[in-house]
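> Could you send the Mitochondrial import inner membrane translocase subunit prediction when you get a chance?

Sure thing. Input:
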Amino acid sequence: MDPSALQSPELQNFLNQEKERAMINEMVGKLTSACWDKCITGTPGSKFSSSEAACLTNCAQRYMEMSLMIVKRFQNMQ
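Output:
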């Protein structure tokens, strides 16, 4: 492979998109695990109870808010 091809803008753009996709997948996995452990206390049925659904919604919102706050803080530090 031509070493200059490793520096092409298209390849760098593709790699950046893949990194972002991997980070999003990791975050969704962590969010799912954390919120599931917190909100689902028994064996789940075919539907979530209203309290489980509310808990999952609140947990996911808070997780996303905190993640955004952390990203902004790191951006401000740079």
